[in-house]
Design a protein that fits this description.
The chain is of the alpha/beta class. It is built from nine helices and seven strands. β1, α1 and β2 form a beta-alpha-beta unit.
Length: 251
């Protein structure tokens, strides 16, 4: 715990057998109370590795539900376990678990209700090996999103995120995509609900075992990001009413 807050790290996994142990071993268990791994029907031995290193809460999808579908299961399980702070960490070792302290502190001490590890603040992205075309696309999409959504994030596309339980409970992410654009839909929902997001500089690593989407999927993702930004602006103006911003059923 940190400042009396229960912290749960969720690991949305797909073919993470080669990198999971390195990731897990750097998680700071002096403050982290529990770890949840959700395996999205990986063809490798991700689940076996998770068991061997001592992860207690393991969920395996019998069919591949996609990156967004994986996160839905992650957050539902974290809520079930009574998390006050939920930290999403990719088990591919692209983001360092050593920043969990920083991200959790932002929320535990009520500076912001959401915190992101940003690869763009500083020189973490290109220095860590991010392909130039992805860096340029990241910057262009982030500019577009900031203009349409009316915010000033350094990037919307990081996979390193921490949320207070209040934020998780207030968002109806069941309506979100099961694909990669889930992340951007969730950011749009966070801002639409009036929350702010803090950012922490985060280095990143690009290497053979790290997960990455190919060019065609990147284009599909980019188009999805543009769509979400336009939906956000039109909903904000009252031109449309979109289901993304409906209240959770429990409310």
């Amino acid at each position: 715990m940190l400042n009396g807050k229960k912290i749960i790290v969720v690991l949305p996994a797909y073919k993470a057998a080669m990198t999971m142990e390195r990731t897990y071993n750097e998680i700071p268990f002096d403050i982290v109370d529990d770890v949840v791994l959700v395996d999205d029907n990986s063809p490798d031995n991700t689940v076996d590795v998770a068991r061997s290193i001592g992860i207690k809460h393991i969920i395996k999808h019998e069919v591949n539900k996609g990156y967004g579908g994986n996160q839905k299961t992650c957050y539902a399980k974290a809520v079930e376990l009574g998390a006050d702070i939920v930290i999403m960490l990719h088990p591919d070792y692209q983001y360092t678990p050593k920043l969990i302290h920083a991200l959790a502190s932002v929320i535990a001490y009520e500076v912001y209700p959401v915190a992101f590890g940003s690869r763009i603040l500083g020189k973490g992205a290109l220095k860590g090996g991010m392909p130039l075309y992805k860096y340029i696309a990241n910057r262009a999409l982030t500019l577009f999103e900031n203009v349409l959504i009316g915010q000033k994030l350094s990037e919307y596309h990081t996979g390193y995120r921490a949320f207070s339980s209040d934020v998780i409970h207030s968002i109806n992410f069941s309506h979100n995509s099961d694909d990669f654009v889930f992340d951007n839909e969730m950011i749009s929902q966070i801002f639409m609900n009036g929350y702010e997001i803090g950012e922490v500089t985060c280095p990143t690593k690009y290497f053979e075992e790290a997960s990455s989407i190919n060019f065609s999927r990147s284009v599909q993702y980019g188009l999805g990001v543009l769509r979400v930004s336009l939906i956000h602006r039109l909903h904000k103006w009252g031109v449309i009413k979109h289901k993304l911003y409906s209240k959770p059923v429990s409310e």
